[in-house]
Design goal:
Shape: globular
Oligomer: single chain
Strand content: 15-25%
Structural class: alpha+beta
CATH topology of the largest domain: Rossmann fold
Helix content: 25-40%
Low-confidence stretches: 9-84, 456-461
Number of domains: 2
Number of helices: 12
CATH superfamily of the largest domain: SGNH hydrolase
Largest sheet: 6 strands, mixed
Number of strands: 17
Distance between the termini: 34 Å
């Protein structure tokens, strides 16, 4: 009998062979990937139920500051008195599937939100962007979600960023698995500020967002006296945000509603930090799927765990995710002597932080993929991460197996139309897109038949 991993690999072959399309640009500095196939063994359909947070230690949250009041606890995904019982054949994704089902049946007036934490394979947004696109095509598009501002080593589907002037990043080395500074870096794990040459960033939308107006959630932090943030939206005159009592040193959020027909322009003044912006459609009138890509080039499980727990989980709580995807492991496998036991523990610790503020969120853990310079270590890292995923009730997406297992990247690099890049670590752009299609198929497999062709919306681009 074909298991779920074999099924996912078969679907992957249906999308066509991975070919060496345009390589990922050097400016993106890609350095790791992780992806995978479906979860545990076949199980009988189950109805979504509340899950207790994982048994992982988590510190108490700091008291909310006046500038960014703590959000109310997340509401249940679906009120059972209003919606007929929904049965998913994938127990690990029962609540996520219930939310998608309600969305598809026009019985939900909020977005289904996904938080994707990962490394360079996710940062480029070719893979995560394809998942976002296909989920949006079936269940409703709702915008790009989280976006960095001022980060030159960055791309994201559906937008164009014009970055002017000189910028500096905090922390200087955002992938280090240890605390740097105060560890407060917003939702995406890094902040951008400018120098005295008048830096600015212009955000233009290349993909339409449903509805006449979208919602913007601008995040910033004023560091010194006299710091400010200026912005222009809807083609209107610039507005300058200055310090209010109690705001200095605290993360501040500004909510705006505006058209996406004109650029959104932001300027940090002084040492003000920008921690990004979330852009999505109005969930009341145009609910859909929002996938926040929070991946960083070179990151690992320890990277996210080095961030201040209270500050970061407060940002996660604002997003109220229905699903969290953990896509790490390839960088850890690249170490000469990986600490497998440490990584296994870190999977649970990171899940515990998310569940401490979003206990209804389902989880997906993605395997590391093969890499030509660490084949046996990747194999062992895969076993380690898979064990942790099952221990914490997460859906297991096994890219390593889908792509051919140990030695697959070396073999694929020798093919006439190479499926991986010359570093034998990263896929080509087309490869990421096709793998995203396979992941989409896996994520909705237990939900019911697709209304679009499996994993494809035309050729990978």
């Amino acid at each position: 009998m074909m298991d779920r991993n074999d099924g996912a690999r078969a679907r992957h072959r249906q999308h066509g062979r991975l070919s060496h399309g345009a390589g990922v640009g050097a400016a993106l500095s890609l350095s790791t990937l992780a992806l995978g196939a479906c979860g545990a063994s076949d199980a009988a359909p189950v109805a979504p139920t509340s899950r207790a947070p994982a048994a992982v230690a988590s510190t108490e949250h700091a008291a909310p500051d006046e500038a960014t009041p703590a959000p109310a606890p997340p509401e249940p995904l679906i009120k059972q008195e209003d919606v007929a019982p929904f049965l998913s054949t994938t127990p690990e994704l029962a609540r996520f599937h219930a939310a998608l089902d309600a969305l598809e049946k026009k019985q939900r007036t909020d977005h289904v939100r996904i938080v994707w934490l990962g490394d360079s394979h996710g940062q480029a947004d070719f893979w995560s962007g394809q998942v976002r696109k296909l989920l949006g095509t079936r269940f409703g598009k709702a915008g790009p979600g989280f976006l960095h501002l001022g980060y030159k080593n960055y791309r994201h589907d559906g937008i164009k960023l014009d970055i002017h002037g000189k910028w500096r990043m905090r922390p200087k080395k955002p992938v280090l698995p240890k605390r740097q500074g105060d560890g407060v870096y917003g939702l995406g794990g890094l902040m951008m500020s400018g120098y005295d040459d008048g830096p600015r960033v212009e955000l233009t939308f290349t993909d339409a967002i449903p509805g006449d107006r979208a919602r913007f959630d601008l995040c910033y932090r004023l560091v010194d006296k006299g710091d400010a943030v200026a912005y222009s939206i809807d083609g209107k005159p610039e507005v300058t945000l200055t310090e209010k009592e109690g705001q200095r040193g605290e993360i501040v959020h500004l909510s705006l509603t505006a058209s996406t027909q004109s650029p959104f322009v932001v300027r940090p003044i002084g040492r003000a930090d920008l921690c990004g912006v979330v852009v999505e459609s109005d969930p009341q009138s145009h609910p859909g799927v929002v996938l926040d890509t929070l991946a960083i080039n070179g990151a690992r499980y320890g990277t996210a765990l080095s961030w201040d727990e209270a500050a970061w989980t407060k940002e996660v709580a604002r997003r109220k995710p229905d699903l969290v995807i953990l896509e790490y492991g390839t960088n850890e496998a690249g170490d000469t002597n990986p600490s497998y036991a440490k990584v296994e523990k870190q999977v649970g610790e990171l899940l515990g932080r998310v569940r401490s503020v979003s206990s209804n969120a389902d989880c997906v853990v993605v395997s590391p993929t093969d890499r030509g310079d660490a084949e046996s270590r990747v194999t062992q890292m895969r076993e380690t991460v898979m064990k942790a995923a099952k221990a914490h009730g997460c859906y297991w997406f096994d890219a390593w197996k889908i792509l051919g297992g140990e030695g697959s990247f070396a073999r694929m690099s020798e093919e006439p139309e190479a499926k991986v890049q010359a570093d034998k670590i990263h896929l080509t752009i087309k490869g990421y897109r096709e793998l995203g299609g396979t992941m989409f198929d896996s994520l909705v497999e237990g939900l019911g038949p697709n209304k679009i062709a499996k994993g494809s919306s035309g050729p990978a681009k």
